[in-house]
Fold each of these.
Amino acid sequence: MSLTTIVAKAFLARQKSLEHHAHHAEALQERVLKYLIGRGQKTEYGQRYLFDAIRNYSDFARCLPINTYEEMKEDIDRMRHGEANVLWPGQVKWYAKSSGTTNDKSKFIPVTHEGLQNTHYQGGKDVVAFYLRNNPKSRLFDGRSLILGGSHAPNYNISDSLVGDLSAILIENINPLANLVRVPCKKTALLADFEVKRDRIAKETMTKNVTNISGVPSWMMSVLVRIQELTGKQHIDEVWPNLEVFFHGGIAFTPYRKQYEQLIANPDMHYMETYNASEGFFGIQDDPTDSSMLLMLDYGVFYEFIPMEEYGTDNPTIVPLSGVETGCNYAMVITTACGLWRYVIGDTVMFTSKNPYKFIITGRTKYFINAFGEELIMDNAERGLAYACEQTGAQVREYTVAPVYMDEQARCRHQWLIEFSVKPQSVEEFAQLLDKKLQEVNSDYEAKRFHNITLQHLEIVEARPDLFNDWLKAKGKLGGQHKVPRLSNSRKNIDELLELQGRCE
């Protein structure tokens, strides 16, 4: 009998209880809200918004405001300086560093003990529970798990308080027994220098019996390419013949799927998507034949949704889970056991089913590029362009940006199509200045650009005069309220523009 067969029995009870997600969804969410309000009563935030008077969802929605990071930043910063009982009972010592906002380079998301155990770790366990249910012949635990992690650093001068990537927080606090089946070693996993880390991970793991890999597709691709280089093997399953599944999340997998299928030749290889963010663990692809993810309802996260057509208005409609409709694009609002109260996470989702509640991620509430985990927002782009123009005397008339996805050597970049009204003396210098500023204002972009390991230097393509106007005109969108899409994960717009430019040259 294999070790997996023995371990799988421990997941049977949870597999059974997960069936409640289909039949008792609203009841699960009501229970979560009651728990959160009860815990929140003991906090300064709970006293501020009269949690003692909240008896149901209507009271909750009436008493608490909708929050972005800017609204919660002051309280979070007080917590980071050691204050207790601000947004959640007790002192919170872990903070997940995420991409920034308009005003800050980074966000710092509280990670409480309850959030760590009941949200993030429970999500990881349930991923395995679903996978074993769908693959009863799995040998998952008969080998090692390659899990990519980030790094962490001291948080101010607070004793035992750290700030860093969520993955680093998870690795730092993981049950020591998990280290018996996980690679690389903890010291390597938490290295800050990804160039060194990638090399060490490859060397530590290429002789192990790895059966499963977990991480962001772009980062994992870079590691697998390095393993190819070191071993001289054409396919990763020649290195790890028992590799059976990639648990992935963080960015869209679609652009990478073909490359992974070329890199891992085994036709029985499995790919399973998760929705695990710094703010919480929200979804799992429970059915390999359906790209939608199951919304996880008993992790200490209460969900609300704002229809995107009303997002940004003075009094938008805000509904709990019971009020959503399939096919509608929503901005997701969360209340969590990490002290985030009616927090607009910035992601947009669309439900594909209500029994059970399943969804797909449709994007962000603002223009963005997150092809490689860089989470570049429009404000970053505008500030970068303003700086480059100021330094060179250039003027930008129109622009759009899209990713150039990874090739077989794991090389990728951002491609900027810019129509200058005043050209810089050197486009190369302009590109250097733009890239420099983007790294200054966005910590995730900076991390991906480090040593050109994940993301190579951006490319600027000069657009001919009136290219963007001609493109809008051809679509019947010239003038009025129509705007050129600035940032996109898709290459559809930029490819159309480049084709139009080519036809006219």
Amino acid sequence: MAKMINRALLKYHISKLTTLNHQLSFLEAYLEIILNAKQTKKDKTLMEMKKRHSEILEPLMMKAGIHSDNVETKKQDLIDQINKKYHWHFKALSQSKKRAMKKQASSDKINHFADKEAKMHQKQEEALQSLALRYTKDENNIAMHQSNYEINKTKLEQKYLTKQTKLDQKFALDTIKIKKNYSDRIERIKKAIEDERPLLKKYAKGLESATEIPQDVILRLENLNMRFGGLLAVDNLSFDVKKGEIFGLIGPNGAGKTTIFNCITRFYRPTSGLMLFRKNPVEVIHLNDYPVHNIIKQGIVRTFQNVELIWELSILDNLLVAAHTTYRSGFFGQLLHMPKLKREEEVMRSKALGILETMGLLQYQYMIPYGLPYGILKKVELARTLMANPKLIILDEPAAGLNDLETENLAHIIKKIRDDYQATIFLVEHDMGLVMDICDTVCAISFGKMLAIGTPTEIQNNPLVRSAYLGEES
């Protein structure tokens, strides 16, 4: 009875600690978003002010005979705009004249088009002359214009510096206020987390379970069997996947590799056997007891052999959809679009943009998947897994369809994900170069049975594996 109470209390405190950790990471991320938004707003205000001042000084510089590439470029842009505007006016008038001639309009109407064209030419010339006068150097009063330019320049610079000082002071005060507000909340949460840790140790101590697995193991399969009628696809398979490693599952076509993934993620219900997953340092769960839609909530995510994206959504939205399990806003919060949900969406968008930048996909954020190269789509699917805060990422043939350069880049990305996101990688792959390059442990199977498990070098030299792949005598 005491053990049952301890186990219940342990689960409660684990849940509480998970919630506190989520609140901590959320507040830290949102604090950074707020500060960045204020910095961006300040920079934008100063940039717009600088642009207005530049527009004021441009004609003064020209009259004063001060050469500037920016002024010349702006002048040419304005000339091009005027010419472009009248080009389309003339084209429209020409088309109207052609239609009138086809309808055999009267000579007065035809002459009317000619008069209108002449007036338009006159207006275009007047606009160009007005612009030229604006940017023409005044040789007679150049000294006066130079003095006028310097006076205005000094005034505008002083005005800009005054505005910059005010904005800097306001930004500094706002930053202190915001940081104080959030730092107090962050410190309270950190203290609550520290208070929870001894309780976890207290209630975890002395709890022994038949399903216990070593601390360094995140996934264990014990005597897993999967039968489809008379076909035994997985035959009494057992192995451990350790935390933080890249574990490779290899075997010939039809060996049962994807079937194993489907069992772990509960797409298939195994015929027999246990699947144990370490959800956290003190809790091991039976994956057999969870429905398929709850597997992702335990920290297990996967990709598929074929790219499975939402083709009507942008790349960024595909990532945001993948974060649906991490939202803490309830049904009514989402229904009414409460402020908490808006803050969560800002944090998720920032996280998605960070992941896209890490994967080298930031330039594709607003594009839909249709028409993008296959290698990009594979990277998007891999990026999407990171939105769910995974502990175990299952990759089903991630290099399928990629060329040598893309495969090499993929190997670098998988290692980076393992290191930066502290995730364990479990992959099935036929590209032996990739497997031997990135995997810490490799398990070889054939017809659902274990052939060998060990380091890449040990698997390469194993006679049973060579026989299954190359038909050599074992």
Amino acid sequence: MRPFIHLIFICLMLSLAGCSSLQRKAAVPSQQMGQAQIAGLSGVRYMVASQSSIDQMAADIQAGFKVRSEKTLNTSANYLSLSGGGDDGAYGAGLLIGWSERGDRPQFNLVTGISTGALIAPFAFMGKEYDPALRHVYTQLGPQDIFIERGLISGILGDGLSDTTPLYQLISQFVDDAFLKKVAYEYTTKNRWLLIGTTNLDAGVPVVWNMGKIASIGTPEALDLFRKIMLASASIPGAFSPVMFDFEVAGQSFQEMHVDGGAITQVFLYPSALSQRSQDLKLKLQKQRNAYIIRNARLDPEWRETERGTLSIIQRAISSLIQTQGVGDLYRIYHTTQVDGVSFNLAYIGSDFKFPHQTEFDTAYMQALFDYGYKQGLSGKEWQKYPPGYKRGFDEELPKK
């Protein structure tokens, strides 16, 4: 996240006490969250902190295995995780397109996305046919194509400093009935999974949505939900309005407020508890499994002299927190992959990228970053096998044999 986003967060914290909030339906009570369903769209999400949701995810995987041939066990399974990062998503888009043109980008069995990664994920899932859409979104668009500023006072008295109607319209331009049918086909006939993460702000928990299952329902409501989930995952708290989802419990109507998945985690692969449940069900997985994680951010700390002032100090602290949270997420994913025997492969923006970044969704910056990622993908970038600092630290501490 950039200083613009940090300042939004600060403005909200310093907003006038006693300001009235916008009206909404009551939130789903905590004790009933497990029973809450969207009308006509039940069982399409997992609250991954809940064992019942892990069990449901494993059951859905087991059901999907019915369309899988035995030959599949002798092929490699490839997973792709796309992180948050705002306009730094241009890096991931460029890398994927360069990888396509190189000719050895695999068809992914699983694609996950958070925030800007949620905007990339559906197109990465569908393959190189949608590379032109990725290129357009991350090289041709500017701030006016993403949000409309409301003004400071209106923003503080509302639910976000910006209106994301342009972003929803952009999503709708590409995600239509035909696109939904293609996603549904991949899910129902090939057991390929597309997952997008949001944050349930009422409960303070991560939510993972099964986008293939939603697509397979095929109703107008499913299409609208698919689009709204993409929007919610990219809705930075305070900067953009949250997305409200209507739920039903025992005939009563409630709402959940969802925001950027990055409020909980910067990148995710799959819940570690899922592995144990899969073993309990005796699910047969491919022996060779490869995870590719694209972190749309730099991982080296950015040195910057901090002004001695309240806002500057808070802004810098939040920036550091987000940066270290992202590194911690990579360590968590690495541990899970090593326990499960999955190959770990990591790409991120290196310290050699120096192009100046003036404003959010700066087209010139995004084009430069896209080109940087594209060259890496085209040249066959050597993926990192460890999170930053991991191997060196252990090599120095363990005695040589």
Amino acid sequence: MFWVLLLLLAWAAAGTACTRLCLAAVHAAADDVDAGHGHDLTLYEAAFLSGGPRRVADLTLVSMARQRRLLLAHTGWATVVDPRGQDEIERSVIGAIGPEGQSRIAPVRDAAATAAPVRGLADRLVRAGLAVPDGARTTVAAAVRQVQIAVVVVLALGAIALLTPAPSDVPRHLIALWFALPLALTLSCLAIARIEVHPYSRWASPAGQRLLGALPRRAGSGDDRTYLTTVAVRGVSAVGEPDLRAAFADREQHWRAGHTRGA
């Protein structure tokens, strides 16, 4: 009976996908148990976990501008005031501006985001279990996609089985019922994963998200670190100074215009 072979294939697809999802969820939960305990996020780490490498570059630019060591004009240009960076990420920003000491903000941001110090920061966060590894973005998500594919496969095999002539002693509704079992398995796994499996952001793992949630960030606070924490988590939209916010707004307009011309 051809429909039995199709049923076995449906069970194989459903069973393999659901098993992979369960193993991935257990593995992710085991990795997350001790990650982040006793770890106090730096501003750079908070920026990376919230918005990735570009957020780190933005935070550095804002921090240096507030300390008057970098001038960010509302026209979208960055000018070095103090050429001595306080850390390697600041030095990468100064290096990206170039020997003339002045450059547009957009290329500075792009160069700083891809510089070795930011890549090193990303690697450390991944090793600490706070950031999602680049590229794979999470084994759980890949496993969920496989279960979703399995749902389609089971439906397709069931449809073929119903459309294929079967022995007269096997009712069509009984064949449909048999295929409904692997379909129910895959759908229930997806439902459980949606409820139970902690979602990953693009950059922060569940442990990283917990640490981000514990950060104090109140826009408008007089505490400079709290202000920069808000910028790290929310991005340049949290910048309070109108001129400084205009500098980043001009950067975004310049970036869009360049991509429009290149399209």
